[in-house]
TrEMBL record:
It is a peripheral membrane protein. It is found in: Golgi apparatus membrane. This is GPP34 family phosphoprotein. Keywords: Golgi apparatus, Lipid-binding, Membrane. It comes from the Bacteria. The keyword Chloroplast does not apply. InterPro entries: GPP34-like, GPP34-like_sf.
Length: 224
């Protein structure tokens, strides 16, 4: 495994509460994680998008031929893109589904997360995952805060992480480290809109929220 964390791993650390292990935006997490992997493949030149070919499922994504990638998460995603040309919305689901546990396992292996198993009432066994080593996460948070609060220019990876946080709607959950404000919202949205991957996540998340809202409204109407 590479020593450097992937964007998707950095994102997971930022989304996870240090004490409870709760993950912000859990309901649409697969879109966010899938988007993070696609963004990384794009930054590294392994995929491209056709800006002039946008269908119902978003921009069409193309794989760039080359040697196998050393990271299994990126290689698996690249193979899915290479299988056939599809819209980015479809790929978000295909790549992001099931990725949560893979990313958590990797972070446990790196020693950044801790997984503990315990019994409740002496009968029911449950497993919890919490932050173990906060050094990397704190460094990430400092980079994000420097951009959003102090106006520093981000490197490509930090810009990608911020864009994905904005797109997933989870940025306000970091308010204890990054006070939520109009300035923070505006800067994060700028970085989101500069990234086709982050924009795709935003569209997917909003579709899901809209569908859930409609379903809730129908349920309430039927109940009444």
């Amino acid at each position: 495994m590479q020593n450097e964390t992937l964007i998707v791993e950095d994102l997971m650390l930022l989304l996870m509460d240090d004490e409870s292990g709760a993950i912000a935006g859990a309901g649409t997490l697969y879109y966010t994680l899938g988007g993070a992997v696609l963004v990384e493949l794009g930054l590294d030149g392994h995929i491209t998008v056709d800006e002039n070919d946008k269908g119902l499922n978003g921009l069409k994504v193309h794989a760039v031929p080359g040697n196998a990638l050393s990271d299994p998460v990126l290689q698996t995603a690249h193979e899915k893109v290479a299988d056939r040309v599809r819209g980015v919305q479809t790929l978000l689901i295909e790549i992001g589904t099931g990725l949560r546990e893979t990313v958590l396992d990797r972070l446990v292996e790196r020693g950044m997360l801790r997984r503990e198993s315990k019994k409740t009432l002496g009968l029911f066994r449950s497993t919890s995952t919490t932050v173990a080593d906060t050094r990397h996460k704190k460094a990430l948070m400092e980079k994000v805060r420097a951009v959003l609060v102090y106006g520093e220019e981000p490197d490509a990876r930090t810009a990608a992480v911020i864009g994905l946080l904005s797109a997933s709607g989870t940025l306000p959950s970091l308010h204890r480290s990054i006070p939520w404000s109009g300035k923070v919202y505006t800067r994060a949205k700028e970085l989101e809109q500069a990234s086709w991957g982050a924009e795709a996540v935003n569209t997917a998340v909003m579709r899901t929220v809209a569908a859930v809202s409609v379903g809730t409204a129908v349920a309430v109407t039927v109940t009444n």
